[in-house]
Amino acid sequence: MTLAQNCEYRMVLPIGQSKFTLVYIKEVSSLPAAEISVPFILNEANQVPTNMTPNVKFTLCPGGLKIGHDNVQLEAQTDQKEGDQGLSAPLVVKYSDNDQATGAWTLKHAGQDAQDPFFFVEVPYGEMRPRLAYQREAPQTSSKLAAISFETSNIKQ
Amino acid sequence: MNEADRKVFDCRANILVQKAERKYDALVKTMIELQEAGGTGAAQVIGETVTDLTKDLSQLFAFAYELRKNDPQNQYSSGFLKGNVSPPVVVDIIMDNTWDSTK
């Protein structure tokens, strides 16, 4: 038995005057090879490719939130489960059942006002709590994401 | 101290320990027991407990997992969370999770 999320959300990043949305390949049948793909942030001015989706479910699990869709989960690809100091890990989407702690995330208020719906998405364990980040330089139309220590410079949350 | 006040006092003591020890399954059960006892004191203790958990959303989500698991009929979750958790989208995310006994 487990919890099921009934609604879908989008993860939107306001960058300058533009808004970017996290998108990923929606089905394992669309993958070119292994059961892993890389998520992107896509400028909302662009159309989401037909084989991709911006919709995610936030499903509660004992370790926090699973972000994904049914058997599709967003994860930081690292062998070090406890989030070592200075950890930087590429972000991947895995297309299989996974209840491991590495697949759990949490949210952290990003603004001064608790009513603002802006959050950092970060790993819920470890001293440094790596969080989702994008490359500061020229995200332009799309950019890869990473999970990275929040003290690392040149990375914008 | 009357019986209702004694109940609130005892539950509050248990809640403080269970929250500190992060025993969220027991915490949820105590809060439900307190809610069933009723009274303004109970509502205040529940509100303060949830508000304190929101200071670290990772703790709130761990608590919320047990809350949704222990409340499949949606009798308590909404009352515990609404007004005590900001912003409202966090409440929406939690409330959209339902216990699926078939999986």
Question: Can you tell me about this structure?
Answer:
The complex is a heterodimer of chains A (157) and B (103). Chain A has 157 residues and is mainly beta. Chain A has strands at residues 2-5, 9-10, 12-15, 18-25, 36-37, 40-43, 52-53, 55-61, 64-69, 72-76, 88-95, 104-109, 119-122, 131-135, 142-148, 155-156. Chain B contains six helices and one strand; from the N terminus they run ααααααβ. Chain B is globular and about 45 Å long. Helix content of chain B is 71%, strand content 4%. Chain B has helices spanning 3-20, 24-37, 40-53, 57-70, 77-81, 88-95; one strand at residues 97-100. The model of chain B has no long low-confidence stretch (mean pLDDT 91). In chain B, α1 (3-20) runs antiparallel to α2 and α1 runs parallel beside α3. Chains A and B meet through β1, β8 and β12 of A and α4, α6 and β1 of B.
Task: Write a concise keyword list for the protein shown above.
heterodimer; A: 157 residues; mainly beta; Trefoil (Acidic Fibroblast Growth Factor, subunit A); 15-stranded antiparallel beta sheet; disordered C terminus; B: 103 residues; mainly alpha; globular
